[in-house]
Amino acid sequence: MDKKPVDVLVVNFNTATLLQPMFDALRQADSETLASYLVVDNASVDDSLDRLAKVCPEALVVSNAKNVGFGRANNQLLEHLQGKYALLLNTDAFVSEDTLEKTIAYMDAHPQCGVLGVRLVGRDGDLQPSCRYFPTPLNVFVSRTGLGRFFPGLKMVDEMDWGHDAVRECDWLPGCFYLVRREVLDQVGLFDPRYFLYYEEVDHCKRVKEAGWKVVFYPHTTVVHIGGESSKSVAELEAASRQISSYQIESELLYFRKHHGVPGLALHMFLVNLGDLVLALKALLKGRGWGAIQACWRHSRATWTSLLGTQFARQPTR
């Protein structure tokens, strides 16, 4: 049997109800000709495995005994790749009929493109951030505090004030639809396993660009991305939505230590505490109540706890 050009990599965590519509959308995009399916189930407690066997019996399935996180789960599938490209696709992301054909054609025609993303819209059709700038201690601080008017010209991570109708290079792309050239994976690998959740694709795109490849936003097809379904199930299972933010806090620290060094990490910690102070003062002046002020204190405390738990962002806690 001829190898298909793209391997579709799916990490599932308690999203059984999304599997049918996700695979239906892929099949309408001619995936049976263009793609093979590789799935990791991250210890789901719903009926995901039974549903998957019915919805896509031809998929290669890896079933984990525990949730190993998004990046590590995708890494488990690297040894099974056979195609020229790998498409990381969330279970809550639904491709258009022309998505696979157009994106594969673009990659074929542009051999310097290492990673390709597309136009993302929500369930209601509203445009989502689809083409992003790298996070820095400063732009993360400005985004949290809403002080953008004091920093004109600063590139924000989710900058949306540009036309989304033309192909353009960018810093990084969301992992819900993430088309990667196999040569890139052979050269730089996939995700840093230290990130349990969040920042995997940010770090990967940075390494891809440092290796000389291009990261490209392609607007001529659209993927509907519901967003947050796996995270929602994590929160429900753990009955603690704050745990979700702890994943992000930890990954942020690991990222800044890795790519900005100790000085960048120190600046980030300073700006986190300054940001929480600014937000607490805003809450006080606007009469938002003691709870809003306490939230700022909890965020600072959680960040310091994560810093110490990761041995100053040298290693993950999970």
TrEMBL record:
| Family annotation (Pfam families) | Glycos_transf_2 (PF00535)
From the broadest rank down, the organism's phylogenetic lineage runs: Bacteria, Pseudomonadati, Pseudomonadota, Gammaproteobacteria, Pseudomonadales
- Positions of transmembrane segments: none
Tell me the ranges covered by the Glycosyltransferase 2-like domain, including all copies. 8-127
* Keywords, ordered alphabetically: Cell inner membrane, Cell membrane, Membrane, Transferase
What name goes with this protein?
Glycosyltransferase family 2 protein
One of the record's GO molecular function terms:
transferase activity
Entries under SUPFAM superfamilies matching the protein: Nucleotide-diphospho-sugar transferases
